[in-house]
Amino acid sequence: xxxxxxxxxxxxxxxxxxxxxxxxxxxxxxxxxxxxxxxxxxxxxxxxxxxxxxxxxxxxxxxxxxxxxxxxxxxxxxxxxxxxxxxxxxxxxxxxxxxxxxxxxxxxxxxxxxxxxxxxxxxxxxxxxxxxxxxxxxxxxxxxxxxxxxxxxxxxxxxxxxxxxxxxxxxxxxxxxxxx
Length: 180
What we know:
Layout: E1 3-5, E2 8-10, E3 15-18, E4 24-30, H1 35-51, E5 55-61, H2 71-83, H3 87-96, H4 103-112, H5 117-123, H6 127-142, E6 150-153, E7 156-157, H7 164-179
Parallel strand pairs: 4-5
Antiparallel strand pairs: 1-2, 3-5, 4-6, 6-7
């Protein structure tokens, strides 16, 4: 399934929270070790609550390993959790416990969300999951992403500072445009 949203395509490899048919699609390119992504996490949660079924949220990996040494491995860990249908649980727990990203810490977090840990550890070695992280990153680069978090709403890049009210205003503007 592919849905065109401006310069973004949502496909079956994307992680989508919410209604895939929603008129609003919020895409975040994020890095699990980025403090700004941690700060944005509750803002995104609030947007999901506020807009409900009108909003689909997509998270794409954009690890910046030069400044965040755990970012790539944690992104693969989240992809490995997705194999057990626990991507969003891992996504949330990692962002909420960002100061604990060593491999042993991630193992504990994976256990806390109920993953089959032996299967998860094996899945962490899968090349297709590392490739998924790389493909997300490359797609972000093609869209001009250079930092995290970077947001798009219906394919339109959010260019303002990271502020909850400004992001809500931007989503509202895109909703009005979609209705017009």
